[in-house]
Amino acid sequence: MLYAILCYANEETVFSWTKEEEEAVMAKLYAVQAPLAERGKLGPVGRLMPTTAATTVRKGKEEPLVLDGPFAETKEALLGFYVVDFDTLEEAVAFSKELSAVNPGSTSYEIRPFYVFRPGASST
């Protein structure tokens, strides 16, 4: 089953890192990801830019509203995601624990079953 693992972090912490600090954290994250990538179990991984770069389209009474920034103000924000193929939720939890151990900017990892929708194809 595919799982989406959503990485929440404190933006002030993550986006204040020096280039060297950023490279050190990313090297540790790549090391955790490598075994899954080698087995073909790691799907897309993405890092989102800060919420200050976000645009939100919110349902309005007559037509959608386009707003600058995120939907809600919060100290932690969704800053990235992984799509991984695991047989069990326990494997997804273990991977998330590994990520958490090497990522000093993360505050939590949310795990959700993930379905891919393609018109005319089955979802897996």
TrEMBL record:
> Which residues belong to any copy of the YCII-related domain?
1-114
Q: Which family does it belong to?
A: Belongs to the YciI family.
Question: What is this protein's record name?
Answer: YCII-related domain-containing protein
Annotated organism of origin: Rhizobium favelukesii
